[in-house]
Amino acid sequence: MQKTRTHVAILMASYNGARFLRDQLDSIAAQDHDDWSLHVSDDGSHDPTLGIVAAFARDHPGRRIVWRKGPARGSTANFLSLLRDPAIRADHFAFADQDDVWLPGKLTRAVAMLAPHADTPALYGSRTWIAAEDLTIRGPSPLPRRAPGFRNALVQSLAGGNTMVLNARARRIALMAGPAEGAACHDWWLYQLVSGAGGRVVFDRVPTLLYRQHDGNQIGANLSFHARLRRLSGLFRGRFAEWNHANANALLQAAPLLTQENRACLDAFIRLRGNRGLAALRGLRAAGLCRQSRAGDLSLAVAAMMGRV
User: Fold this and answer.
1) Nearest Cα to Cα of residue 125 among 137, 140, 136, 114
2) Phi-psi label, residue 155: left if phi above 0, alpha if psi -120 to 50, beta otherwise
3) Which distant-in-sequence residues (6+ apart) come within 8 Å of 57 by Cβ?
4) Taking the model in full, what pTM does it have?
5) CA-based diameter of the chain, in Å?
């Protein structure tokens, strides 16, 4: 892909990430899109994280690499505090986890795929290579079966935040939406917000990074049978419903930004969450909500009938 001169602000939320941080920083330095700055918000690390960031800055004296104290309320609040900081100015905004490894063309691909949507809020996400702690590749993340959209976003996150890049118009939507206190995850929230506001969500079928799996992952990949079983168990125990409650409350605060159609869909979603059995199932179908796999659709239907959506 042809390189484009556009500035990308890389937003990294850090906390005790020293074990893998240098690999990630080196992969950022190796990007073939060269116009970037790095903004690190640290939630109170008590390991060598900040020393590693400082050394990286010294090794790249011509680069804007800044560090600040984070809000210390978890990774979602930390990432969103970076995105909503008006002092950080750029054409695009890319999230970076502290423990992954980016492939060299990650930013180039994102900028190129967002370029046709410069006049509308747009959000990019991609597949990843799921990797072991030593970066041995286990396989690619699943491909979505359906096009991105708000009816999917209400019940499922599409792409990992570690792959996401927003254009300036999408970032402006996030500023207008407010702090989204309590939103389940920053990536899921932004998928809901941008799609709900009528923006474009662009999914890249080509993996752009190594998504390292280790015992410190906050969420982790959903690739193995046991990982999927844990997710399914969480759904039926009510964790999924808790996330949906938090996200719906955040979306209600941002309701003026939603299109009329998507506001009606949100209202239908909130109503069906108060039902069980066939009434909930009918509400689910009427709202057109869907996940990205047949198994996901089935689990969503069962959860709705149990009052666990």
Assistant:
1) 114
2) alpha
3) 63, 65, 67
4) 0.92
5) 63
Please tell me whether residue 161 adopts helix, strand or coil conformation.
Answer: helix
Q: Rounded mean pLDDT of 215-221?
A: 60
pLDDT tens digits for range 45-90:
999 999 999 999 999 999 999 999 999 999 999 999 999 999 999 9
User: Taking each helix axis from N to C terminus, what angle separates 239-253 and 260-272, rounded to the nearest 10 degrees?
Assistant: 140
Q: Is 46 exposed, middle or buried (0-12, 13-18, 19+ CB in 10 A)?
A: exposed
Torsion-angle region of 169 (φ positive above 0: left; ψ -120 to 50: alpha; else: beta): alpha
- Sorted by sequence, the CB contacts under 8 Å of residue 253 that are 6+ apart come out as 177, 178, 180
For residue 293, the surrounding DSSP H or E stretch is none
Query: Confidence band (pLDDT; 50, 70, 90) for 227?
Result: low
Q: Give the distance from CA 87 to its chain's centroid.
A: 22
Q: Which residues pair with 130 in a beta bridge?
A: 139, 211
